[in-house]
Design brief:
The chain has helices spanning 29-73, 84-89, 122-131, 150-156, and strands spanning 78-79, 99-107, 112-119, 142-143, 166-171, 179-185, 193-200. The protein is built from four helices and seven strands. It has 202 residues and is α+β, with helices and mostly antiparallel strands. Strand 2 (99-107) and strand 3 (112-119) form a beta hairpin. The chain starts with 28 loop residues before the first helix and ends with a strand.
Length: 202
């Protein structure tokens, strides 16, 4: 009579079977310290690099703002957009995405004026002129017509001495509706620089 062969006890030593896995040897202290150092370094880089980048960007933005303020402070202009109330009151609808925007407002008991400058596109200029009520867009401009007076130019330091070409128009309205004197420098054919003096008398 043959006795069936019994399987080996799992507690007895023997070669590993196909489903068995070898145990990983314990990690030595030097390897553990090295792994922790690498992990800490990666965390510092992930947190520190973006923080440094944001700090540099903030400083550059602040320096740019200071440069603009310094540039316009000598002329009385304030870098930035006039408020929505000012734009509506003086009927100066600055086109979206305009650049180099600056303004200055004067008030007395007789007359109020808003001086504005901005750099825009040809499409932006056309929309601006139509929105002010000229009805003709850029076709309403006249070549070499410097409609802003020397007195108003002196107030904000506009000289208009560049070669140009220069274009301008006056959109005259009955008080108290604002009257706009507009001058455009088209030395850059794709990006005209626009100067506006809007005057209102109560």
């Amino acid at each position: 009579m043959t006795v069936p062969r019994q399987p080996s006890s799992p507690d007895l030593p023997g070669p590993p079977g196909p489903g068995d896995t070898e145990q990983r040897p314990p990690e030595d202290r030097r390897h553990m310290l090295r792994r922790r150092w690498l992990t800490a370094t990666i965390i510092v880089l992930l947190i520190g690099v973006p923080a440094v980048y944001l700090l540099i960007s903030a400083n550059q933005s602040r320096d740019s703002g200071r440069d603009k303020e310094k540039k316009y402070s000598a002329t009385g202009l304030t870098a930035g957009w006039p408020s929505k109330v000012q734009r509506r009151l003086y009927d100066v609808p600055i086109p979206p995405y305009s650049e180099e925007v600056a303004y200055y407002e004067t008030n007395n008991w007789r007359t109020s004026r808003l001086y504005v400058q901005f750099l825009t596109s040809n499409e932006g200029l056309d929309k601006f002129l139509r929105a002010t009520g000229t009805g003709k867009g850029v076709s309403a401009l006249k070549k070499n017509d410097i409609t802003i007076s020397k007195r108003d130019r002196k107030v904000v330091g506009w000289e208009f001495t560049d070669p140009g070409p220069w274009w301008g128009l006056t959109h005259e309205m009955k008080n108290p509706t604002p009257t706009q004197d507009i001058v455009v420098n088209r030395s850059d054919p794709k990006h005209p620089m626009v100067y506006v003096v809007s005057t209102t008398t109560p």
